[in-house]
Amino acid sequence: MRRGLALAATLSLAVPASAQTARPSLDYASAAKIRDTCLDYARAHNLKVAVFVLENHGMAVTLAHMDGVSMGVGEIALWKATSAAKYGRATADTAALNPPANMPSVATIMGGVPIYSADGTLLGGVGTSGGKPADDAACGTAGIEAAGLKAAKPVPAP
pTM, whole model, 2 decimals? Predict the structure, then answer.
């Protein structure tokens, strides 16, 4: 029995401690800041919105909807957030590409905004719906900036 434990301990030491490269990810504190700032923006502009904040694989980190917002508005916010998170571009920019109507998870109306780290790593996306499309996009962008993140991939200096 002791020999088996010693062998197991020896084998575990042979495996590198960090086999996986660490990657930045969208944490809850940043996602909550994005959500809350967007809700504050909506209140200040007399809007009723739904907000989804997703990580870059399309999984929800946090979400909210204001009282009186329909289920459809929430589904549109999720659609916009999914598009921004998965493709790394604002939904307004996606519309300019004229994608086919059946392309999966692609939103083509303003209100989905990607979330980037300062070094240009795609962290996720925020989708807002319930206001005019330009207000939805401004709401998400305000949240991203308040969290100290970027709403577009930073362009490296030449």
Answer: 0.84
